[in-house]
Amino acid sequence: MNSCKNPVQVAILSSYESESVINLSLIDRLLEAGVNFTGFLENQLPRHFSEELLEYPLLLIDQKSLKSLTAEQRCKLERYAADHFVYCFDYLPETATRMDINMHMEIWVNQALAAAGIQGDTMNMPEQSPAEQIRFVEERSAKYLAQPEIPFSEFTVHALRGMNPDSGSLGTILAALFDRQDIDQLPPHHDALAAWMYAPLCSELTGEKRHAERFLQVMDKIMQRRPYTPEGILAGSGDISDPLNFNGEFPGLANYTTGGRMIVDLEMFHFHAPLFASAARISHNPVFLDQLARLMHQLRTVNCDPVDHLPCHYSRNGVRHGTKWSRGAAHVLHGLTLTLEMWPEIPLKGELAAWADSIGEGLLECQSEDGCWHNILDIPITPLETSGTMAFLCSFGALIKKGLLEEGKYGGMIQRARCALLRRCWRGGFAGNCAGTGLAPDMDYYVRRPFNFLCTGQLAAALRV
């Protein structure tokens, strides 16, 4: 290891499967703190006791591993513990949820680091191999998409972005996905609808027109049955024939069908913009391009701050609200990149690139020295956050490749982001993701959002640029 990089300071002995929730929660805490550990670069935690584990200031061990020690191993560990710190990291009830695990792990790991006198440094963590991380993502994405009963959701879109674009099996996977969808059942919300954007690609790869035809049938129903905002923008969910959603996925959760239709949030661009682009390209129906233009205009002129051009999370009745949330800006830029993937020569290409450029100028001003951005972009006391960083790397890298943005302007920014992300990756996931979405009118909600480890196909899309 490069001598300027963080040395390994923490040994881990875990009997859990590599990608168990407990392991990932433990690793998230260490990587967020910039603490190197045994098995980081190998992408595999030690599962068997060895004396090498006793060479570091701190040993984190699970109950099963502790109880499985031989008498000789226990004696060695007791001698080690006389001058070092040993901490068991899984005193949790069997009923513990992921949220419970993350909450306890944050307390326990920080307590263990403090007791062992360990101080991390995120900027000097070694970097993972991009090719190795992409391989993990591609394998996980293919496995996810192969599930026979998988419903469409945002995770479908993310997994499709994680697939190898040159994979010979992509057409077969897409065909199986679309053939399983019931087009008489209206997708409940925009992220469940969004995967249909890939239907034209499926038809092109397989030569079977029915996938694109069924996509347009779904879109026709959506355009007729979804509510619209006062600005004439298709809302993110709802059915005008069922205002209280009694027949929907979450009965009683009215959301956009009632007062929620006043809201235009950043997620809508992630999931609706590329969907409209895909439908517009194959149907030549101007309504889809009009919807995309309306949504972009609203977000750019209302949600975005005219001073730094960074988007606030939502607007209501023409007034922007929420904060300049990193993950919110990520939704815009993921949507922008996907829109250009769905229709490379879309007539709005110049406007899309100009909008990305204006957001990029704001991002240049608030990128941290580490390379990540803060959870609230313009509030540097908030934690560094990675899902936004991943999106900015993905989008600006792709736009530079397409010749739509200048490498001289953004090349340094995305290189710093790439290095920061690779210092936080493990087995195709990454630490420091702000968990959950939802909307709030004040900053406190966004400051309090929990953080966790995230596995998403979007990581491969970012690391390929």
Descriptive tags:
single chain; 465 residues; mainly alpha; Glycosyltransferase; 2 domains; 3-stranded parallel beta sheet; 3-stranded antiparallel beta sheet; 18 helices; globular
Question: What does this molecule look like?
Answer:
This protein has helices at residues 21-32, 63-67, 71-81, 98-116, 130-145, 154-162, 170-179, 190-193, 199-206, 210-225, 267-283, 286-303, 326-342, 349-366, 386-401, 407-422, 443-447, 458-464, and strands spanning 10-13, 58-61, 85-88, 263-265, 314-316, 319-321, 373-374, 384-385, 425-426, 429-434, 451-455. It folds into two domains: 10-124, Rossmann fold; 130-464, Alpha/alpha barrel (Glycosyltransferase), CATH 1.50.10. The longest helix is centred in the N-terminal third of the chain and has 19 residues, at 98-116. A hairpin with a 2-residue loop joins strand 5 and strand 6. It has a three-stranded parallel beta sheet with strand order 1-2-3, with helices on both faces. It has 18 helices and eleven strands. The protein is mainly α and 465 residues long. Helices cover 48% and strands 8% of the residues. The protein is globular. The mean pLDDT is 94.
Secondary structure layout:
Layout: E1 10-13, H1 21-32, E2 58-61, H2 63-67, H3 71-81, E3 85-88, H4 98-116, H5 130-145, H6 154-162, H7 170-179, H8 190-193, H9 199-206, H10 210-225, E4 263-265, H11 267-283, H12 286-303, E5 314-316, E6 319-321, H13 326-342, H14 349-366, E7 373-374, E8 384-385, H15 386-401, H16 407-422, E9 425-426, E10 429-434, H17 443-447, E11 451-455, H18 458-464
Parallel strand pairs: 1-2, 2-3
Antiparallel strand pairs: 4-5, 5-6, 7-8, 9-10, 10-11
Helix pairs in contact: 1-4, 5-6, 5-18, 6-18, 7-9, 9-10, 11-12, 11-13, 13-15, 15-16, 15-18
